[in-house]
Specification:
With 248 residues, the chain is of the alpha+beta class. It has two domains: 56 residues, Alpha-Beta Plaits, CATH 3.30.70.20; 154 residues, Alpha-Beta Plaits, CATH 3.30.70.1710. Helices cover 23% and strands 17% of the residues. The chain is built from seven helices and twelve strands. Strand 8 and strand 9 form a beta hairpin. The protein binds iron/sulfur cluster (SF4) (2 copies). The site of one iron/sulfur cluster has 16 residues, from loops. One iron/sulfur cluster binds next to loops.
Length: 248
């Protein structure tokens, strides 16, 4: 993103719209701190600049990754993912996708940078490296996954490590038996990660309506009742059952 310095009349109308607070008013015009800008496009779409001074620049890699993850209209041009945005619905809408369909597996979704703080891939790599020793399967439709170039070490494509995005989600499946150690491994790097992040655990409930991961989470000191949670009501069950049937 850029502000055309010849057009800008320094009205400062755009400044409060930037979620990264990287539009800096100067004496004659506003300037964007490109190191902090995540290319979300909010300033361009919403601030209604009176002289159309805000301009989207043509982005190439690695900077293009910022727009792909931060702008709802950004596309992942360099990787084969089916949708736009920062994450995937695959695990969140598990009642449709059926990715987690046994009690001995759980999915973990670690979201960095949200709300409104932003995250760099180098911080994401601290997490992927911390969980690399476990037997995990990364979600193939998540746009972060193709950038984890070595799944055994958790190494992320070096070219994008310094790129900042609005938010991104590391998503993988794991055995419930490994979950306690995985949560500990994530916690062990929390002080090194220079942004905010949340950890979601997605699992099935058993015949007594008890989440299969509940004991692991509670026994490791997390207050499950204080955490926010989301329950899928099973409205997608017909699709889920077809998919499981097809897999047999
Ligand atoms: S709204 Fe437009 S003219 Fe006003 S400060 Fe921002 S870029 Fe400059
Ligand atoms: S594109 Fe987004 S992050 Fe960049 S200056 Fe505009 S509002 Fe701020």
């Amino acid at each position: 993103m850029q502000i055309n310095q010849d057009k800008c009349i320094n009205c400062k109308k755009c400044v409060p719209y930037c979620p990264m607070e990287c539009m800096n008013p100067g004496e004659k015009s506003v300037q964007i701190d490109l190191e902090e800008c995540v290319e979300c496009g909010i300033c361009l779409r919403n601030s209604n600049c009176p002289v159309n001074a805000i301009e989207q620049t043509f982005l190439t890699m690695p900077r293009a990754v910022r727009k792909a993850f931060s702008d709802p209209f950004g596309k992942h041009e360099n990787i084969e993912v089916k949708h736009m945005g920062r994450g995937t619905e695959e695990i969140k809408t598990n009642d449709v996708t059926g990715i987690i369909h046994t009690l001995d597996e759980a999915a973990v979704a670690i979201e960095l940078g949200r709300p409104g703080v932003g995250a760099r891939f180098r911080d994401m790599e601290k997490i992927t490296k911390a969980v690399a020793k476990f037997d995990i399967v990364y979600e193939k439709n998540n746009p972060v996954t193709p950038y984890i170039i070595d799944k055994k070490t958790g190494e992320i494509e070096p070219e994008i490590l310094n790129e900042k995005i609005m938010s991104g989600i590391v998503e993988f499946r794991a055995k419930i038996n490994d979950l306690a150690e995985i949560l500990k491994a994530v916690k062990s790097v929390e002080d090194k990660v220079e942004t905010v992040f949340t950890v979601a655990v997605i699992c099935k409930v058993d015949e007594n309506n008890k989440p299969s991961a509940e004991d692991v989470i509670v026994n490791n000191g997390f207050n499950i009742r204080a955490a926010s949670s989301k329950t899928n009501m099973g409205l997608g069950r017909p699709l889920y059952e077809d998919r499981i049937k097809g897999a047999k």
